[in-house]
Structure formats: C-alpha cells, structure tokens
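Worked problem 6 (solution included).
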Amino acid sequence: MLPAAVISSDRRALLRAAKPLTDFADQRITHADREPSQPPPTLNQLDAFIDHFGGLVQKYSLILNGSTLVDLIPTSQEDWKAPFRLAWLAPDSEA
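Solution. The predicted structure is:
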C-alpha cells in the first residue's frame, strides 16, 4: 500500500510543474486578460511537465494495474496503411 504522504507529494509536485501552464490558461485563454501578469510558459516548462506527468502515469499504472507502460507515445498496433491498399470504388462508379 502506498502511503498517503507519497501520493500528496506526487500531487504537489505535479501541480508545481503545471503552474506555469495553468496560469497561462487562466489568464490568456479562459479570461483573456489584456494585461497578463506573467509571460507565457516556455517550451522547456511544457516539456518538463510532460516528462513529470509521464513518470507519474508510469508509476501509478504499475501500482494500480501491476504493469507499466513501456512508452507514453502511442504506437499503431495494426497496419494503418491497409485501407489504402484496397480499392473501395469500382472504376466505373461516380465519385
């Protein structure tokens, strides 16, 4: 069983990493402030949040499901080009 303090710590760290992004969303997108108090988040801040979030997803996936994700980037499990190899219109039909 995971101690509540660990979960709380993970949550605080996630909120801390997300703060520049949520501040931007609150000021510039949600409320459309004409004079925002902070500059927009940097790509490094966004990347840091994604990395942190991904680590938590993998950690809690292992705890809750007993298995972890190898990677968070979706990969196609099937042949995505298959529909393009099949002629679905007859040559004499109107398009």
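Discussion: The mean pLDDT is 86.
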